[in-house]
Amino acid sequence: MLNDTAPVATTVGGDDWSDRLQAVTQVERNVFVIAGAGTGKTSLLTARLCYFLVWRAFHHARSHGRPQAAVREVVAMTFTEKAAAAMRDRARAYLQAWLYPGTAVEPADARFVEAVRRDLYERLHCTESEWRRVLGTVLTYLNEVRISTIHSFCAGLLRAYAFEASIPPQFEIIGDDLWDQVFQEEWLFYLLDLLGHAPRSEPAYRRAQAAVQWFSQKYHLDLETLSSMARSAAVSSITMGSSLDRQTEWEVAAWEAYHRRLKERGLLQAVLEAVRAYRPRSSKSESFQQFLEKYLESFIDRPGRRRYPPPDLSDRWKALQTRLERAAEACAPQLPEVRVPRFLHLFRAFLFSVDLALTRRVEEALAPFLERLQRRFRQEGYLTYDDLLWQTYRLLVQGPTVRQSLQAQIHHILVDEFQDTNPVQMDILRLLGQDVKTHQWRPGSIFVVGDPKQSIYAFRDADLAAFQRFYEELQQSPDFLHCVLRQNFRSGAAVLNFVNAACGPLFEEDRQRYPLAEGESLVDRYGLFSATDPS
């Protein structure tokens, strides 16, 4: 239990002291921490950072007398520069408390920080003078530890490997107004080269012309829509990469596996009847209803056949979502494995998922434009924030020598707020943490902490499905450690008791009303992890 100096806190799910200590001290293992709001996840990550720094500093001190080498072996990533600065300050406070007993730290952290120090000191079998000398060196060089956002980290890599990345080392991040101006100029020139009186005849342009003609005939594509597609592709060229392909394939596979059980028990037929009973209030809603009817009819009969949704699918979905929920609810008593939120998530994911063949057409239509736009940006020394990620991803994929060099330097990566990480950022973490030859996670190469219930950055491509896949991949490493933090330090007992009283029965009612079906796991039920308390 907490000491008397800690603020009032309520234990949620029991004392998690053991999990906290393991998460910090098991530096040779890859660790995935699920931590709810107010459970001290950033403090935990900072303690892990300090533990690793001192651990590696002792290794270097004893092998070649240069403990400062440890500061270049760790990278800590968080979501904002302000949070990164706060993490560095907290790391300094922890190290000073270890070096100078009695140094003040946050009251809620004091007991834990001391326990971590004691574990490390005993593990190192060092003398007091050695301890003080090495810790003093780590504190002196602490400002050289790479603690930043992932965008700042990528910017640093690209400047260091500018030649290999084929970008100017003194690049700048382009502002929105200038980006719009450059886009409009290059888009006009591209349309003239593509559709003007004397169109260009290079193979890429011929493929683009054929793709635009195909879209025009099949979807009655106009120039305004084509321009909108080009802008979306240019703003986030990442979405044209391999991460989206894997995401789409995973979602489609999940839906197709899921639908087989539902079809046998009549859920899809019930949803079809709900769609047919819907009374649209506009012509667009009516067209969407007709699309869904045909979609469900063909899917029930021939699940492998794909139908392309209308372009305004997102708006139309909202009008029918309530009816689909009711249809799923009506079937739930007979279908205990039908989880209404999960059904809607997977159905919508499949409905909205990008058809890979269609994506290739978009790439063909826009590839010459995106290439010339990127060339213009490179010539003038500009990158967007998405470019920082995409160019880093390309650098690591296309440059195995660079990747090997970075892996020799970076032994440990810590990531805070992991629930807000997007698929491309996760790919970068994989490329840095997985062995170049075996593609297996290197022991102790990564530590991530997050809370799927706090994921709020879907508009920046944060994706809980990717979060789940990352967990499942990391779980396969032999040194994997999964920890759950349940102790809340932020709120008083009255607040926590009220929240638990209000929300706890909802989860319990959910468990009782929908017991686990044969073969169903909590992963199926909640889309999270089997070891995580779903409350």
Description of the molecule:
- The protein is mainly alpha-helical and about 525 residues long.
- The chain has helices at about 15-25, 40-65, 80-100, 105-125, 130-140, 150-160, 160-165, 175-195, 205-220, 225-235, 240-265, 265-275, 285-300, 315-330, 340-350, 355-380, 385-400, 400-410, 425-435, 465-475, 495-515, 520-525, and strands spanning about 30-35, 75-80, 145-150, 170-175, 380-385, 410-415, 445-450, 480-485.
- The strands form 2 sheets. A 6-stranded parallel sheet has the order 3-2-6-7-1-8, with helices on both faces. Strands 4-5 form a two-stranded parallel sheet.
Task: Write the topology of this structure.
Elements: H1 17-25, E1 31-35, H2 41-64, E2 74-78, H3 81-99, H4 107-124, H5 128-140, E3 146-149, H6 150-160, H7 162-165, E4 172-173, H8 176-195, H9 203-219, H10 223-235, H11 242-264, H12 267-277, H13 283-301, H14 313-331, H15 340-352, H16 356-379, E5 382-383, H17 385-398, H18 400-409, E6 412-415, H19 423-433, E7 446-450, H20 464-475, E8 481-485, H21 493-513, H22 522-526
Parallel strand pairs: 1-7, 1-8, 2-3, 2-6, 4-5, 6-7
Helix pairs in contact: 1-2, 2-3, 2-4, 2-5, 3-5, 6-17, 8-16, 9-16, 10-16, 11-15, 12-13, 12-14, 13-14, 14-15, 17-19
